[in-house]
TrEMBL record:
InterPro entries: Beta-lactam_resp_regulator (IPR052173), Peptidase_M48 (IPR001915). One of its GO terms (biological process) is proteolysis. This is M48 family metalloprotease. Keywords: Hydrolase, Membrane, Metal-binding, Metalloprotease, Protease, Transmembrane, Transmembrane helix, Zinc. Residues 130-207 form the Peptidase M48 domain. The chain crosses the membrane at residues 6-22, 34-59, 96-115, 284-308. Belongs to the peptidase M48 family. The keyword Transmembrane applies. It comes from Nocardia terrae. Binds 1 zinc ion per subunit.
């Protein structure tokens, strides 16, 4: 039971504190890869902590047993809670606690079902979008992309079978050849890095848990950081100046593509600045945040398992 309390408090602490802390690392994209890892670790371990907390509580109520590895100063409170749950303090209180646990279980199941439906719906939409884009456009073998014969500027990638990069005639007209190559490299970096999977998952969590900043802010921050990662991949091939000029050209169009508008100012600042590696303290701090976010709940779960094994022996 003590492990459950610790995990529950950990989950709430991360949900409240992580958005402000992690935005310091990701606001200018100094270490985008580590920042993405830290955001994903915080979101994943928070969900893990709450899930394991609920599982421990249900198991404890079902077996009338308190898990080992106690936190001494909380033992009295936990023992009273356990006694109430198993009926030592009367039927009404036991019924109330069991009802509360049941409602929490139902709520968790509904969130999981809604998340699953959201992810499946997003996948179907993406596959259908890719299919329609291939039908509406023409494949350009030299670009290895589907070209839409419309003047509205568009440049994006769609995951599908196969993956598809889509550009419009408006983009082909606006960009010079080397700028267009940089844009295509940017989109290929998204597909090669499987960024669509991360975006689908983070946006799904933000959809089903819209009141928790860790997931809503995290989804937008991860999306912005992934754009920076794709910029870096394109810059390694074509140079930062070429990627920057392509981005500025697209953003200056009367109706710029959505990908060019996404977090434009931080991306322009990064590409305009010298390509210096991030300072070692910054990298260490970001890495420590990601490692800590993973280590704490995993250690708590391992402690619970060890406690149960010791009890069994």
């Amino acid at each position: 039971m003590s492990v459950a309390v610790c995990l529950m408090l950990y989950g709430f602490a991360v949900a409240v504190l992580a958005p402000r802390l992690l935005r310091r690392f990701s606001i200018e994209g100094i270490t985008p890869r580590l920042a993405v890892a830290a955001w994903l670790a915080a979101m994943a371990t928070t969900v893990l902590a709450w899930t394991v907390t609920l599982a421990i509580l249900i198991i404890d109520l079902a077996t009338h047993r308190i898990s080992l590895f106690p936190v001494r100063f909380m033992d009295g409170c936990l023992l009273h809670l356990h006694d109430a749950a198993v009926g030592d303090y009367g039927g009404p209180l036991q019924t109330g606690l069991l009802a509360l646990s049941g409602l929490a279980s139902v709520a968790a199941a509904l969130v999981a079902i809604r998340l699953g439906r959201t992810l499946l719906r997003a996948r179907r939409h993406t596959l259908e979008h890719a299919r329609l884009a291939r039908m509406a456009g023409r494949h350009h073998p030299e670009l290895d992309a589907v070209v839409l014969d419309v003047d509205h500027p568009a440049a994006y990638c769609v995951a599908g079978k196969p993956h598809t990069i889509v550009v419009s005639r408006g983009v082909l007209t606006a960009l010079e050849d080397h700028h267009l190559d940089a844009v295509l490299s940017h989109e290929r970096a998204h597909l090669d890095g499987r960024h669509h999977l991360l975006l689908t998952l983070t946006r799904g969590l933000a959809t089903v848990l819209p009141r928790i900043d860790l997931f809503t802010v995290g989804a937008s921050e991860v999306a912005r950081l992934l754009e920076m990662l794709a910029d870096d991949a394109a810059a390694r091939i074509h140079g930062r100046a070429t990627v920057l000029q392509a981005l500025l050209t697209l953003s200056a169009l009367p109706t710029p593509p959505a990908t060019a508008e996404a977090a434009l100012l931080p991306r322009v600042r990064r590409l305009s600045a010298p390509a210096d590696p991030p300072r070692l303290p910054t990298r260490i701090a970001a890495g420590a945040v990601a490692l800590t976010a993973v280590a704490i709940p995993v250690a708590a779960v391992i402690a619970a398992v060890i406690g149960i094994e010791v009890c069994a022996t």
